[in-house]
Specification:
By secondary structure, the chain is of the alpha/beta class. The protein has 7 helices and 7 strands; from the N terminus they run αβββαβαβαβαβαα. The chain has helices at residues 3-31, 56-70, 91-101, 118-131, 146-153, 169-172, 174-195; strands at 41-44, 49-50, 53-54, 77-80, 109-112, 136-140, 159-162. A 5-stranded parallel beta sheet has the order 5-4-1-6-7, with helices on both faces. Strand 6, helix 5 (146-153) and strand 7 (159-162) form a beta-alpha-beta unit. The longest helix has 29 residues, at 3-31. The chain is elongated.
Length: 196
């Protein structure tokens, strides 16, 4: 193989690997930062629910949002997440019920059940916020999810701060967390391309 062709082949292999490693490192770096601060609303990204009960992952997110709400960082909590295959109730509705049981006034909870993906949920939340003249959102999810959440709100006219839960079962097991970070690193270029 001629030397020039070999260099092109190496570059074609190396470029995607380097991009993936850059995205992986970016996911890790953003996951470590908690930007909790006053906002117009706290937004909880949905996760699985089982027969009307939040999964351990969803519960960890809701508990973190509850802490932020009790700290007085925002006057309302937005719960997201649609109805999964075979489910009868949305993740957002389960989140609403859980927060109400924990003492959050029903009037302080906003249910946005439109999305079954991060993109769809953030599109619905962004539209809701803009309609009400809200500009600052405090986003709650697992650490690995933080970078993509920020990217999903870029270009919407909203300022997004992220505050990851530290009690999710995903974060407690290194192998599990690495798996999700690895998956997320593949999604970042797709979001960047779509938002470009």
């Amino acid at each position: 193989m001629p030397s020039r062709l070999r260099r092109v082949a190496v570059a074609c292999v190396a470029a995607p690997v380097l991009l993936y490693l850059l995205c992986f490192a970016s996911v890790v770096l953003v996951a470590r930062r908690d930007q909790r601060r006053p906002a117009d609303a706290i937004v909880v990204l949905g996760a699985a629910q089982y027969n009307g009960k939040p999964s351990p992952v969803l519960r960890a997110r809701l508990d973190h949002a509850l802490t932020l709400y009790r700290e007085g960082l925002a006057p309302q909590v937005v719960v997201t997440g649609g109805i999964g295959a075979g489910d009868r109730v949305s993740e957002a509705t389960v989140g609403q019920q859980y927060l109400t049981q924990q003492g959050v006034p029903p009037g302080a909870i906003v249910v946005r059940p439109e999305g079954r993906s991060t993109e769809a949920s953030m599109t619905a939340v962004s539209a809701w916020a803009r309609e009400r003249g809200l500009t600052r959102l405090l986003l709650v999810s697992d650490p690995f999810h933080m970078l993509r959440l920020r990217l999903e709100t870029s270009g919407t006219g909203l300022t997004a701060y992220t505050s990851p839960t530290r009690t999710s079962p995903i974060s407690r097991r290194a192998a599990s967390e690495l798996f999700f970070i690895g998956q997320e690193a593949w999604k970042i270029p797709v979001v960047l391309f779509r938002r470009w």
